[in-house]
Amino acid sequence: MRTDTGQVFKLEDYRPSDYLIPQTRLTFRLSPEATVVVAELTIERRAELKTVTPLALDGDGLTLQRIEVDGKAVPLSAYVAGPDQLVLNAPPAKAKFTLVTETRIDPAHNEALMGLYRSSNVYCTQCEAEGFRRITYFLDRPDILSVYTVRIEASRQEAPLLLSNGNPVKSGNLADGWHYAVWEDPHPKPSYLFALVAGDLGKIEDRFVTMSGRDVALGIYVEHGKERLAGYAMDALKRSMKWDEDLFGCEYDLDVFNIVAVSDFNMGAMENKGLNIFNDKYVLADEETATDADFANIEAIIAHEYFHNWTGNRITCRDWFQLCLKEGLTVYRDHEFSADQRSRGVKRIAEVRTLRALQFPEDQGPLAHPVRPRRYREINNFYTATVYEKGSEVVRMIRTLLGAETFRAGMDLYFLRHDGQAATIEDFVQVFADVSGRDLSQFALWYNQAGTPNLTVSSHYDAGEKVLTLEIEQSVPPTPSESRKRLMHIPLAFGLVGKDGKDLPYKAADGATVENGVIHVRKRRHTVRFSGVTERPALSLNRGFSAPVTLSVAQKTDDQFFLAAHDKDAFSRWQAVNTLLSDALIAAFRRQRGGKKPDFTARLGELAGSIAANDDLEPAYRALALTLPSEADIAREIGKDIDPDAIFAAREALATFVASTNKQRFEALYASLLDNRPFSPDAASAGRRALRNVLLDYLSRLNGGVESAARHFKAATNMTDLAASLTVLAHRHPGSPQADAAIAAFAAKFASDPLVMDKWFQIQASVPGPQAVETVRALMTHPAFSSTNPNRLRSLIGTFSSGNQTGFHRADGAGYRFFAETVLEIEKRNPQVAARLATALRSWRSLETGRQAKAREALLTMANTPNLSADLRDIIDRTLA
Ligand code: B3K
Ligand code: ZN
């Protein structure tokens, strides 16, 4: 583990390296505690350099065993080798030479899970962002592209399977029961895409023939006995390969494509060239162990990593500031893929919910940063919702501005112009400027300026003139180190909805501001005039969530109700419902704090009932519309002086109100949704299950609710229904005999399946109320828990701190104290996971003063701990700043 050096990396300091490494030949002699790595690097001095400069290679915790230049040992005086660097003071003056180094590493004791490590006796690697330097000395930066040949030697018994990037070229036996395999990757790649896997694993195989006829052997490797759980992932992979050819003209470029599932992994998955490594959570699934959400995630992440082959691998990033170049774009691509495979409207609503839940609080708090940051201390802390999700929204806005065809032309030009390069955001924006002839300089601020813009909109309708006037004003709130903001170019899609529910025709006075149903907001204030508007319309704004902004619209409640029933845009219709629910919850919260009982309008209860029963709407949509804004959503809307207990009470009151208003309707619908057909993970079937489970949650609040949830649990034939009913029992009826029995039955049935036990941990860690701290503390001693496995930590500690508002934010601060103590324990082994968990405290300043003081104490406890890792130090310092 590297402790913090306080070094800050700045975008403006970027300089190309003096040296290149066109060829890399690696030999690994694998042994759990003493793996030998021999690296033979062809080093080239940049042609334009006149003088010879020292060559400094990155390392991280390395010990040098041997060093040679052009076949000759290097004298001690000619180099300095430390754990973090190898410097050749005076490398050969010639243009090209060969450097050989030998290092020895200890995969078995690598608990940070970066570099080469062991997961359940399988050797595997994770090199992004800076893990390669934990394997060998290298120019470990993404603009150094190298062609790799990798020879792996291991005991055949310990590791019958030897994999690396590219194509397999040779394998054979060695003395003493050892064997070897050689892999060659012809595509030059940065070191962060290097991968190696060795061990004893099961496999499923398939083939894919690409559009130009290349026959690709596909393999998914999993723990023996779990092969049948990888079928869905394989199917998703083949669909992804076809989709990328059809939609983007991107064809696969090697003879093999392998995926390996491992159980100890810091994040979701990794796009190493030709050898993706996955958290097994995103590969393994069947109906008994995976929920519909798991299936959807597997499909999306398999696609995401595969799509990186072009957006990330063939065209990579010049430096880590450009991370969104590959991540934002690839998220955009996986979103589009899922939208095509499932329901586009439902998918869009889910995306926006995620963006608001994860990215908005980041943008509104102390960790705010632009989609392309300009500074970092620890790059691993910048794999954020801003870089990924907002980065994807920026790409989506480019398509909205240019139209689908010109957008595709821009992507084609991007692939043509930059294939084989390490590119920048400027390169990316330029291709779209070139194909469209538009000036995108103001738009590019989306990459460079942090903060969620706000649009305030008011309207006036002149019935005599048939003119509608909109007054639109934009503002961007200040964020850390950016107090003054520039004006953004915001594409605001809209519709003017008439009494019959259809969009009204209009004429816009200014064609440059209004174009194809989109208002281009560029100035601080816009007055937009529409003539020929035959009646006063309801305003449908930010359709499809065309821009990641917050909206304050002066709109009559009647219009909101109207849009909630009639807007033709699925997202905006959902948004209208959500706004009504959110407004009601905020009003109830305020009454709660003022010691008054909430009072909800009958109309709101009626709206929920009519949505539930509307067979013209997809069940998945109805499930989303009926899901109340989360406690965190409400807290974010309120913004300050947050009391999570009052929010919880308001939300419970609304849920009970909706349930009792619609008891008969919900019961009848719940009964009619029971599906006796064989299980299918498709979107339509999943939608019906989702709706039925939302109804169960409502009904569980009424008389007889605990019995119906217990029946649902007993009758469940798939994990979606089982986990949903266990959640209802544990959350709505904690301590009831039915809840206790279900918790015990679940654990008895799935004790030996860690991924399913993660759900069991999650469900219990999120039971609302002050007892959660003790529950979580006790669960940490459960035999299924492991403090070294990231999935277990996220399920228990992550769910508690990010998914349990009343438990974590317990008024006496016990939640924060337990959290600080636990994060400090975790960071000794795995700084990356600890730092990620620690972001749960980022919104501490929006709490009411008592909790704020206690959260601050916990942050200070962490800040005052000596020798913190760079990862945790960076998060804590910025959170407190
Ligand atoms: N590129 C990886 C993320 C690596 C995270 C390093 N801390 C997965 C992905 O986004 O596809
Ligand atoms: Zn990615």
Write the SSE topology:
Blueprint: E1 9-10, E2 19-29, E3 35-45, E4 55-58, E5 64-69, E6 72-73, E7 79-81, E8 85-88, E9 96-105, E10 115-119, E11 122-126, E12 146-155, E13 161-164, E14 167-173, E15 178-189, E16 196-199, E17 202-209, E18 215-222, H1 231-248, E19 256-262, E20 269-270, E21 275-279, H2 292-307, E22 316-317, H3 323-341, H4 344-363, E23 375-376, H5 385-402, H6 404-418, E24 422-423, H7 425-436, H8 445-448, E25 454-462, E26 467-475, E27 490-497, E28 507-508, E29 514-515, E30 518-521, E31 525-531, E32 538-541, E33 550-553, H9 557-566, H10 570-593, H11 602-613, H12 619-626, H13 631-638, H14 644-661, H15 663-672, H16 683-699, H17 705-715, H18 719-732, H19 737-750, H20 754-765, H21 772-779, H22 790-803, H23 805-808, H24 814-829, H25 831-838, H26 849-863, H27 870-880
Parallel strand pairs: 2-12, 18-19, 19-21, 22-24, 25-33
Antiparallel strand pairs: 1-23, 2-3, 3-9, 4-8, 5-6, 5-9, 7-8, 10-11, 11-16, 12-15, 13-16, 14-15, 17-18, 20-21, 25-26, 26-31, 27-30, 27-32, 28-31, 29-30
Bound molecules: (3S)-3,7-diaminoheptanoic acid (B3K) and zinc ion (ZN).
Zinc ion (ZN) binds next to helix 3.
Q: Which small-molecule species are bound to the chains here?
A: (3S)-3,7-diaminoheptanoic acid, zinc ion
Give the class from helix and strand content and strand pairing: alpha+beta
Helix content range: 40-55%
Sequence of strands across the biggest β-sheet: 6-5-9-3-2-12-15-14
Number of helices: 27
The mean pLDDT is 98
Number of β-strand runs: 33
- Within the CATH hierarchy, at the fold level, what is the topology of the domain at 9-200? Immunoglobulin-like
- Strand content is 15-25%
